[in-house]
Every structure is written in C-alpha cells, then in structure tokens.
Design brief:
single chain, 759 residues, alpha+beta, 10-stranded mixed β-sheet, 6-stranded mixed beta barrel, 22 helices, elongated
C-alpha cells in the first residue's frame, strides 16, 4: 500500500502543504514562546542564586550597630548587614527629572554583576542608565539630596540582581532606564551628603534555617519597621509576573492553534476520503480492516507533523532569540545563551500526539460508516454532497452562488474557519498596542488635568508645603502603602487621597459616567481588581495599613466606583476616609500647573522635591512595554498573513478540484470564463463577509478574554480595540483574499469541457 500512499500524497500535495505550513507556524510560535519563558526563567534564577543572598530586607531610620547585633542574635539568622539607601536627584543636561536610588555597597551578603570598572571610589551605576544617557566610565554626575549637591565620578557599569525590574515604586508601569536607576557607592561617600556611616535605614538579612515566626521576632526587636521578604520585593514580584505571563501566552496559543488545526484537518480529511471513496471501498471489499485503512490515511499527517516539528523548531530558535533579547533588555539581564529545554519538546509532542490520535479516530469512524455497496455501485456517498434548495424569484447568478456555498458546506466552513482564525490572530496582535495606546492617550489628554506631578522627599504638613510652594498652583495628594486583603490573597496596594482631586484628575467609571469626587464615602478601585477578584461597586473590601504608631490596622471600606486604569493601581478614597486610616495631616505629593517656563526652573530648584514628572512623561515610562508589545505584535501579524495565505492555497485546491466538472458543464452551456470567474469571486466574498461578521462578533468576548488572561497585578490591558483597527484588518484580509483569487482565472481558462466530460 506504500505506493498508493505516495501517489495519494502527490495528488493532494496542496492540501498537505497547507497543513504543513500551519503546523510549522503553530510549532514555531508556541515553542518560541515556551523557550523564551524557560530561558528567561533560567537566567533570572541563576542570577538570583549567584548574586542575591538576602532573604529579608528591614527598613527603618537610624538603625544602629547595636540593633543589628540583636537581629543577628536570632537563632535562624545567619548574617546581617546594615546599609544606607536614598533617592538622589541628578542634574544632567539641565534636566532634573533623573533619579538615582543609591545604596551603600553590600560587602558580605549581596553582590553586583560588573560589566566594566575602574579602580576608584565613586558611583556604581547600571549599564542601561549609562547607555540611555550616553555616559561612560570616568564621567561625572552632579547629584543632590538634603540641600547638598556634589559631583561624583562613575567608576563601574553594573547590573543590580535584586533590581532586575528597576522601578521607583508600585506606581511605575515599567523600568525607565533613562530617568531612573539603582546605583551604589561606598558607605563612607554618604557622609559627604550629611548621612552618618553608622546609622542605617536598610538591613539585609540572610537566614540560615527557616523559621515561621521570624518576622514577629524581628518586629519585637525593631518595632515600627517595615519587613519585606525576598519574594515580596517589587523587582522579584514583577519579574515573576512577567515570566508567568509568557507561560500564559504560550498556553493561549496552544489552545487557539489546536482548535484551528483540528477544524481544518477535519475538513481536509472529509475532502480526501470523499475523493478516494472508491479506493477505500475496494480495500474494504478485499478484507482490509477499518483500523488499517485509518492508519493508512493517518500516516501523511504523522509525516507532516514530524517534518514540521523539525522546521518549526529551527525557526523558533531565531524568534526565541529575538524575544529573549527584548526581555533581557526589560530586565536588564546580561547576555544569556538561548538553549532548548526537553520539557517544552515533550509538551508540544504530547499535544501533537493528541491531535494525531483525534484525527485517527475521526478517520476510523468515517471509514467504518462508509457503505461499500453504494460506492461500488457508483452511487454518490452522502459525505461528498449535500442537497439544498434555493427559493424561486432569485436571479440565476445569485442562485448559483448560494447553491455552491450550501452544497459544499464543508468547503465553505473550511474557508470560513480560515478567515475567522486569521481575523482572531490579527485582532490579538493589534489588541495589545491598541489597549496600551488608548490607556496612555486617555490618561494624558482626558484624565490628567495637570502639568506636573511632584513627590516630596518626606511626608510634609500643609504649612511646610505652603512655605515652599506658595507661589505655585498645586493640589496636594497623600499616598500610603497598604494591603488589599482578599479571602485567598493579600495584594500590595497604594491608597491615595486628595483634597482637590477633581481639579487635577477627571475620573469616569467603567460605564463612562463622571464620578462625584466630593462624596465623603468615596472609595474607587481599578478595573483590574474587579477583573481579578470579582468585586464591584457596592461590595465591601478590607485594607491593612500601618498607622502612625507602627501597628497594623484593618479598615473595612465600601466600593463606590470602578474605573479603568492601565497601571498605577491605587485605591482612591475621600479625605475623610483617609483621616480615619491615617490620622496625621501630612502629604506625600502634589499636582502642579505651571504658566511660565521660568516657574519650572524655580520648581526644580526646590530641594524638598524628590521627583518631578510631566503629565506626558508617561509615554517615556512605558517605553520598554511598548517595545515588547510591538515586537510581539509584528511576529503575530506576519504569522497571521502566512496562515491566511497557506490556508487559502488549500481552499483554492479544494475549490478547483471539486468544481472542474461543474465548470465544464457551464462552459458546455455557453458560459464565458469571466462569468464563471465572477461567480466564484462572488461566492468567496459572500463567505468572506459572513466570516468577518462572525469574527467581529467573536472579538467582543475575545477582548475581555485577552484582557483577563494577559493582565497582572502590575499592568491591566483594557478590553479595547480601535474602530480603525477593525477596518484595517478587514481591508487586509479582504484585499489579500481577492488578490489571491486572481489565481483562479488561469485554471478556469484551461478547463476543456470536452476532455473533462467525455473522457
């Protein structure tokens, strides 16, 4: 039967080539995502294991060596090291937006990854910050804090393993290597800026053996302190969330591609079995079992899967390296070799094995149910044709078009699935960019009604702020750290409030209604929390905060509104609620509106201000995310077009092979080539329109699914796609299909009705 197998493969080569292309793209996409996930995960874990040895960080002002000794006296604690950490303003090119979070160098617990260095005391700065600002070793930076300004020499280019995802706070969407960086210097250098070298504000703690109540022991020794476990650090959490998202994306595409491929294989199998009915009936009549015949028809799929797996794996290495480079840049990782992982191969091969098994079972049932007697008698089997009736009074041209669509339901469904699948892939590729762009533009142009947002170096009272900000138009804001307590999870959140929020920010709920910001019971949560926890307006939530005395206090709040927010997930509350949570009448930041350029210079000269962010700086802060989204969108976009082209090759083959006799009959009756071509074009465009309408309907729940799947505790992709995107995708698919339909005109002209009907 082998010679028959090769003959059949050659006969249906276009169909098998289509499936081969689909399998290659699917394997390439999924494997590249899985391998990117595995490689990034390996690189991060190796980095942590080799350089990060602290298990806890403890924060409190003015810690002494005596207090460090008490901590080291705890049985489970192996090593303790005191450090100093502070945010310094950087003056560079007359721009004071840049901030360095400088920490004293750890001598025993944590290590820095060094790219290049010089033997001198000075600043040890991340390589990314240096590249973004065109800095080199030996250059000097003017930095200031506490009213003291000095020049410091850059002596080392580094990566801080504990800050792979380096952001100023939870409010920052992504690392901004140009305007913010972690940096290091010797503890003695801090004395030049008014710090005491034996008074620490941060403690690194290495644990020798696990102890469940270690945090309680630490709290009893150092009261009113902030204790952060390694896996609760901003960098650690965000890096793991990003890595987890890669795994989620891979799983998403495994499902999408599997469903699509199975749907197409079913239609292709029906076509092949329909064409080879007589051969199947002959084999069955001479005693060949149904199972053997099913194996016979499954062998080409096994061959396709095997070859496509090899080819797809090769291409996945190229794409995986590109994606690894994107993530390495975001995480500020050093160069890392791309390697394949056996577990990913096993996973994909398992999915492919399941698909092949399903195909085998489907073919077995089709062959088993085939009537040998009917086929050998020359009767048309029911799996080939479907009867249909078209109402009277419809023009002949339209009637022929509808009849062809309805009679060949399998082919029509095959075509529709291909178009819908391509539409979904294209929608997916554009979703991320549209959602991000919409969120940024709406925040800058509609939500934020201020010029600059400033942060103070410390919590300040109204009178203090008035003394330094009296000449400016500003609105104060208070933000404190807290935890959102849910039944199965505790989430770090920022709780913020403003006496005049309505003058700075225009907030609307998810239904588009403007929110009454003067409501004394105001409690606003971002859409992400509704999405994640199923909470909504009218529900109660519990938040935990640390009060002025350093004690953890729980507060029950009733949600009044839900707002769309892409990032900066704050729980907004009214000033009256904030006073219940945190009694001190102090503020941490302010929204500022400026009229003159001179005022900006004056604003930057205020030493009590730690950071100054212009409203539209938000675009800069999203730079790394936008870059990653664009890379991902481009890959999916290209794959979508290739998938559409490959599938249409199969559609063309099926359509022409099943129409030859019908076309010959039409030609015998006097139909011109142009008439036949136009009827086929019209048929395809009817299927195209119906498929696109189905795709548009599907896209509505798809947006919500994509938003839910790809959002995390740091970033929320809002369920939004621009109308222009829909139009562009429709035009891309429509133009591509109609251009490829030109191919039909050549074989139509070559069909000779005499040879086709009377041979």
């Amino acid at each position: 039967m082998i010679k028959y197998l090769f003959r059949d493969v050659k006969k249906f080569k276009i169909l098998y080539l289509t499936l081969f292309t689909l399998f290659v793209i699917a394997i390439c996409t999924i494997l590249s995502l899985l391998e990117t996930y595995s490689n990034v995960d390996d690189a991060v874990n190796a980095f942590y294991g080799n350089y990060i040895k602290d298990d806890y960080m403890l924060y409190k002002k003015n810690l002494t060596e005596k207090e460090l000794g008490k901590i080291e006296g705890i049985d489970s604690v192996e090593k303790v090291e005191g450090t100093i950490e502070a945010d310094f303003r950087v003056k560079l090119d007359n721009d004071e937006r840049r901030t360095l979070r400088i920490q004293s160098i750890s001598k025993e617990i944590d290590k820095l990854y060094s790219y290049d260095s010089m033997d001198s005391k000075g600043l040890h700065i991340s390589k990314k910050f240096m590249e973004e600002n065109d800095l080199s070793l030996g250059d000097t930076l003017r930095i200031s804090i506490n009213g003291i300004e000095k020049e410091m020499k850059i002596v080392e280019s580094i990566v801080n393993p504990s800050a792979l995802f380096s952001i100023k706070s939870w409010n920052e969407p992504s690392p901004d290597g140009k305007y913010f960086s972690d940096a290091y210097m010797d503890i003695s250098e801090f004395e030049k800026f008014g710090f005491s070298a034996d008074m620490y504000n941060k403690v690194l703690i290495k644990v020798g053996k696990y102890k469940s109540d270690l945090e309680n022991d630490l709290e009893s020794i150092i009261s009113n302190s902030k204790i952060v476990e390694k896996n609760e650090q901003i960098s650690y959490i965000t890096v793991n969330e990003e890595i987890g998202d890669l795994k989620t994306v891979s799983s998403f595409f495994i499902v999408i591609f599997s469903v699509c491929i199975l749907s197409i294989i079913v239609v292709v199998t029906q076509k092949i079995i329909g064409e080879l009915q007589k051969k199947i009936a002959y084999f069955k009549s001479i005693g060949i079992k149904n199972g053997e015949l099913a194996k016979y028809f499954t062998l080409p799929y096994i061959g396709i899967v095997g070859i496509s797996f090899i080819v797809g794996s090769c291409f996945s290495r190229v794409i995986g390296k590109i994606l690894l480079g994107v993530y390495s840049d975001v995480f500020n990782l050093p160069e890392y070799d791309f390697v394949f992982h056996n577990r990913n191969f096993i996973l994909i091969l398992s999915v492919l094995a399941i698909i092949i098994t399903i195909v085998y079972v489907f073919q077995y049932k089709k062959i088993k149910n085939m009537s040998v007697a009917r086929v050998l008698k020359g009767e048309e089997d029911k799996i080939v044709k479907n009867s249909c009736r078209i109402g009277k009074g419809i023009p002949l041209f339209v009637k022929n078009v509808l009849r062809n669509i309805l009679r060949n339901r399998g082919r029509s469904i095959f075509t529709g699935i291909a178009i819908i699948f391509s539409f979904i892939l294209l929608i997916t590729s554009f979703f991320f960019f549209d959602s991000l762009e919409h969120s940024l533009s709406s925040r800058v142009n509609e939500v934020n009604n201020y010029d600059y947002k400033i942060a103070f170096v410390k919590e300040m009272e109204k009178k203090e702020i008035a003394d330094i900000m009296g000449k400016f138009d500003y609105q104060l804001e208070k933000a404190i750290a807290g935890e959102l307590v849910m039944p199965e999870e505790e989430l770090d959140v920022v709780i913020s409030s403003s006496d005049s929020l309505k003058e700075s920010i225009l907030l609307k709920d998810i239904e588009g209604k403007e929110i009454d910001l003067e409501n004394p019971n105001l409690c606003i949560i971002p859409y992400r929390y509704k999405q994640q926890f199923g909470i909504n307006s009218g529900d109660n939530i519990t938040v935990e905060t640390v009060n002025e005395e350093g004690k953890i206090v729980k507060h029950d709040l009733k949600i009044t509104n839900v707002v769309y927010e892409y990032t900066m997930f704050s729980v907004y509350v009214s000033p009256s609620i904030m006073k219940q949570i945190y009694c001190e009448d102090t503020y941490t930041s302010a929204y500022v509106n400026l009229d003159k350029e001179q005022e900006y210079k004056e604003l930057t000269s205020i030493e009590e201000i730690s950071t100054i962010e212009k409203n539209d700086y938000i675009y800069d802060s999203y730079g790394s995310i936008i870059s990653g989204v664009e890379q991902f969108a481009k890959i999916i976009f290209i794959f979508s077009l290739v998938v559409l082209a490959a599938i249409f090759m199969g559609i063309s083959y099926i359509s022409l092979s099943t129409r030859k006799r019908d076309i010959a009959i039409l030609k015998m009756l006097g139909a011109k080539n142009r008439y036949i071509y136009m009827s086929i074009m019209t048929e395809m465009n009817v299927i195209l329109i119906v498929s696109l309408l189905v795709g548009i309907v599907i896209s509505s729940p798809l947006k919500n699914i994509l938003s839910s799947v790809f959002s995390n505790n740091r970033i929320c992709f809002l369920p939004y796609i621009k109308e222009e995107t829909y139009l562009m995708i429709i035009l891309i698919i429509g133009i591509l299909i109609n251009l490829m339909m030109l191919y039909f005109f050549i074989p139509i002209r070559k069909i000779n009705y005499k040879k086709e009907l009377f041979r």
